[in-house]
Amino acid sequence: MSNGPGDIISFDNVGLRYGTEPEILRDLSFTLHPGSFYFLTGASGAGKTSLLKLLYLAQRPSRGAIRMFGKDVITLPRTQLPQVRRRLGVVFQDFRLVDHLSAFDNVALPLRIAGVREDALQKPVADMLEWVGLAHRIDAIPATMSGGEQQRVAIARAVIGRPDMLVADEPTGNVDPEMALKLLRLFEALNRLGTTVVVATHDVHLLKKVPDSLIMRLDKGRLSDPTGALRYPPRPSGGRSAGVAP
Amino acid sequence: MKLPPLIGRSLQRGLSPLRGDRASNLVPRARITGPVPWVLGVMVALTVLAAAGGFALGNLTDMARSQLSGGATVQIVEADREMLAAKTMQAADILRDDPAVQSLRIVPQEELSALLEPWLGAASDGSSDLASTAVPMPALIDVQLREAADAAEIERIETALAASISGVRVDAQSDWLKPVYSALTALQILALILIGLLAMTSAAAVWLAARSTFTAHRDTMEIVHHLGGTDDQIARIFQNSVAFDAILGGLIGLVAGLAAIAIIGSRFAGLDSGMVQGGGLGALDWIAIAAIPFVAVAIAMLTARLTVMSALRRML
């Protein structure tokens, strides 16, 4: 299996089980295209978080093949996985900020890991915090920030490295509707720069807020494709389908 | 919604290590309030003492060996005192003519009497000259050979003397100290074993500390891992954290160990024994002792690295 010319991710007959439990993800075959905006929906326990873990390389599948950015990540040596991870931005459901670091240092972390010089990262990090509306909280540590502020720091951290794909797990789950909409606008703005965005949510109202978004629906570990988002096998020319949110 | 600020692609894909304060900030350090500096301090102090003891014993043995290696004692047994004096002079003449002999000294009877006095008491007339009493005393000649007094050489000299003089016996002086050498060598081996055990214990202490720190900061490390941090970067964070603690502990241990050596050294110097004074430490010994904290730091860093790398390998 290979990525199509315009594909970022290809899943081929992927299944996932933990230990000897029954498979929680079954027969997943799909492609994600660059610059597309995907919502991953499904009831609680449908396997959304497990699928996201496969997408941000926190988990290997029990079977099947996964290609990311043209590389077979199943057979890729561990030492080469960090380079793939650096092309991903992840917003975790529980934010996963480093508790003792300031907002600035949390956002700067991906750049520091990537070896960016200190003098080169000061402005981008400050700009990014300003973009998410937290310029005044630059030195605050997570414990002193509200849920919405922590979420925006997490988004800034995921976006600062200008990832090719952003994966967000229930990013609006812990914030009020107004903040949820603001966060969604942040994702849209990033998407307009060409980043593929995958947002897992069980909030059906959110799906209508992003025009041209595509829906991936998980039901008991299997994917359905109400908007034609998951064309498989990949089209030779790539490109996005014009899905309409239900 | 305005677009997010752009960062140049060229900034993103480096693989340079996460270093310095920015890396160490990821794992808050307990410094001297943590156990590692103190545990390593005690280990280094004990290692310094064991090493100093080992070196001192080695020097003592070497000095005794070098002083006695060419030494031999000729013993002449003869009940008649006049005959004894004649045989002694004859033996001395033969030995002086032997090219293997560098020097010799006939041990005076008074000196022999003084050696035996603790066991036999003073002479009946109150003097220390036991030879003047009825106790028959052998004559002794202290011989220094040009080369080591090995068994073949000793046998050759004894045969040469016995051909002309009856009642002669020749012994290598180092033979008398063989049990002492053996005991000193055993103590040296003990010191080496002790140093090995201390090194292993130090590594085990660091292993426990590194595991404990890794467990305490596992979430942070997982975040770094998910953000594209390499195993090497993460291991380096812990390695450097442990290195600082180990340097602190090494210095504490070195100072404590040197203080203990100084105190023990002054006590032994007070004994005023020739043999003990031969057990001093040379320049190379001090350099080796000074290197102990550096070795401890290296062991600590290596242990921390291997511990964290092993834990990381269980992550994808």
How would you describe this structure in keywords?
heterodimer, A: 246 residues, alpha/beta, Rossmann fold, six-stranded mixed sheet, four-stranded antiparallel sheet, disordered C terminus, B: 316 residues, alpha+beta, Alpha-Beta Plaits, 2 domains, 11 helices
Describe the structure.
The complex is a heterodimer of chains A (246) and B (316). Chain A is of the alpha/beta class and 246 residues long. Chain A has seven helices and ten strands. In chain A, helix 3 (103-113) packs across helix 4, helix 4 packs across helix 5 (147-159) and helix 5 runs parallel beside helix 6 (177-192). Chain A is globular, with a radius of gyration of 18 Å. Chain B is α+β, with helices and mostly antiparallel strands and 316 residues long. Chain B has helices spanning 20-24, 35-68, 81-97, 109-120, 151-162, 173-176, 178-216, 218-226, 231-269, 274-277, 283-312; strands at residues 71-76, 101-106, 139-145, 168-172. Chain B has a four-stranded antiparallel beta sheet with strand order 2-3-1-4. The chains are: A alpha/beta (246), B alpha+beta (316). The A-B interface holds A 56-60, 78-79, 81-83, 85-86, 88, 90, 96-98, 100-101, 105, 108-116, 118, 120-121, 124, 127-128, 130-131, 157, 159-162, 185-186, 188-190, 192-193 and B 1-7, 9, 11-18, 22-23, 25-26, 28, 219-220, 222-231, 233, 313, 316.
